[in-house]
Amino acid sequence: MAPAIENPYAFLLERIIKNVDLLNESLQEMNRSVAAINNHNQEITIVAEMWNGYHRNVEFNLQNMDTHLPPGKILTNQSEPLNVIISGTSDPAVLSPDGFAAYVSSLKFDPDSFAGQSSSNDAQQANLGDGNGWMNQTGLYRKTPALMEVLQGGNHFRYWVQNGKKANTGAIFIAASIEMGLKQHHNIVSNGYDLGRDQLVGNATQAPTHSNKTEYTTKLLSMDASLMRGVSKNDLNHKISSDGKVAVLEVTTAPWRGNGASVVAMGPVLVGASLAAVASVALSL
């Protein structure tokens, strides 16, 4: 009986089958990689859409501010920069008087209801280009506790609301700075405008804050350098240097779901009522 003849193509066919299996495995791995890339691209797309939304908000506000506040006009009548802006796109509740007071309380600032109420007691004026002209500051806040800030110095800010007929945005313009204590006549510290801005913005944006069962999330939309273009330290009060940037913030709210406690806004600090006593204490520091 003649021996069986081995198929001469069997070995070649076996190699082809193995290579096809390897190719299938490679294709499957490539498909998994493509799927991962697609998921990553989708995340990038979402972030890009969010950024475009922020960009549109910033562009809207900056266009409005460029129209009504030409470069060199974003200074108070005492040449202090309006270096923080709460955007008019923020939650309307934050832009109301009571809502802003609660928001500022969540940042650990107390209102000073005496100082800065008129030109005779250090009120400053600002022209927001909204048709209201030069207006006295709406209010003054000092870092908690306010009386200690008066004595020893620290972060404080004045603010105005853009609500005139020509630009009723509701945006809040803030002049923030770090000042020395009462004994040093509340002069601004070196680089005090930028430090006051950065401290306020940092405290507001590093994590959500809460007050009166409301949670606040603050986002830094822009550090705009165009609004103070052309302003040098010689234009600023005390001839203090500044990087010329204005922080534009957007604040949103949500119910606070904490442990039931809330930060209670402190009542107005009547600094003037005990000014003589404060002065005598300060002189002994």
From TrEMBL:
Biological processes per GO annotation: attachment of spindle microtubules to kinetochore; cell division
Keyword Cytoplasm among record annotations: yes
Record flagged with keyword Membrane: no
InterPro entries from the UniProt entry: DASH_Dad4
Pfam families, per the entry: DASH_Dad4
CC terms in the record's Gene Ontology section: DASH complex; microtubule; mitotic spindle
Subcellular location: Chromosome, Centromere, Kinetochore; Cytoplasm, Cytoskeleton, Spindle; Nucleus
Leader sequence segment: none
The entry's keywords: Cell cycle, Cell division, Centromere, Chromosome, Cytoplasm, Cytoskeleton, Kinetochore, Microtubule, Mitosis, Nucleus
Family in the record: Belongs to the DASH complex DAD4 family.
Name of the molecule in the record: DASH complex subunit DAD4
Source organism of this protein record: Malassezia equina
Lineage, broadest ranks: Eukaryota, Fungi, Dikarya, Basidiomycota, Ustilaginomycotina
